[in-house]
Amino acid sequence: MTIQLQCARCAAVYATHQVRYVCDCGGLLDVSHDLEALRPELNRHLFDGRLEGAPTPDVAPTINSGVWRYRELILPVMADAIVSRPEGNTPLYHHPRISGWVGLDALYLKHEGENPTGSFKDRGMTVGVTQARLLGAQAVACASTGNTSAALAAYAALAGIPAIVFIPAGKIATGKLAQALAYGARTLQVAGDFDAAMQLVRRVCDELNVYLLNSLNPFRLEGQKSIVFEIVQGFRWRPPDWIVLPAGNLGNTAAFGKALYELKHLGLIESVPRVAAVQAAGANPFYQSFQGGFRERVTLQAETVATAIRIGAPVSYERAIRTMGWTDGLVTQVSDAEIMDAKAMVDGVGIGCEPASAAAVAGTRKLVAEGTIHPDQTVVAVLTGSLLKDPTATFAYHTGEWPDAAYANRPFSVEAELGAVQSMIEEIIESSQ
Length: 433
Description:
By secondary structure, this protein is α/β, with parallel strands linked by helices. The chain has a domain of 205 residues: Rossmann fold. 40% of the residues lie in helices and 14% in strands. Strands 4-5-13-10-11-12 form a six-stranded mixed β-sheet, sandwiched between helices. β1 and β2 form a beta hairpin. It starts with a strand and ends with a helix.
């Protein structure tokens, strides 16, 4: 089964054994699958059987991976070549308190924070590092606001490949940086923001024979398509009306559109859900471009509490525009206050997420209030990262450092005396009834 790299702009084709991230014309590359050849081989029963069946010798090493279950549509390689923890198979949560707050009867939260390193990046990295191993890469690298570096470090360590991460100095949550350090990646703190780090790592990879594993890499996005594959399979191949996701570097936005296009082309789904990409108001270049009909590409100096989407010059811009066309999609923006309030709601029912994840919930609520999403429609909001990825923001919200925290759960001060504690506990129980 053959795959190739194809330019999303001019359709030029390249072999997958070449180390390439962009076309000669400057366009971004896709991993192109021969969908017509795959059509007779792939069906719902095949994927359902892998989900429910017992391990077999050809898939045993990856039987529990929610990525490699769909390997024909991601990277068709032998099982013993795959670098997997495993990843995927993340839950779809439904909680009436969150649904009611958002204004929907059927809101589901696809929690990618329950991947091995705590974010959706594991899905892309299992594929990216597998491809690096197949290419014989001497080292792998990325620029990162945190989650990418954690995933890269973990999967590279598993594969025995040196990892180098470039992070914007002072612009990364400590929970994410700690992972990169713990997993053994060499970490370079770059003066400037994520976009400056991204420019530098691209030069390093081009000139020093290091394999780049940011979302510019088309194999990374192939793994991230599996989020959509799982959502659709979880709904018994009848997709929801909407999929709403946070949007920063736009890798997921691009991957989701490609996944839905392929599923529809193969006849695995009959309808295509609309995709809504949600940006933070302080990091909203894609939103601004969308507002202008994509006639002009906007870049900016990004600033938001949601560090995972604090990106002003998103790499997957062109591929994300394509998703908007394929899915009748849209882009919206939410404030940091809306993000943190939505996060408090998700956290408060025991699910939890990092700030960037909560942008999807805040964006859904906004689209319902505007009448764009109807209350009787089914919506999946994607939570991209774990609560523990950014504990600093959570602490600030609940302890009075965050202005106008509508749902703050401030700690109480109490005397070390039984009577005082008893009075406090009685008050807590009474207020909860």
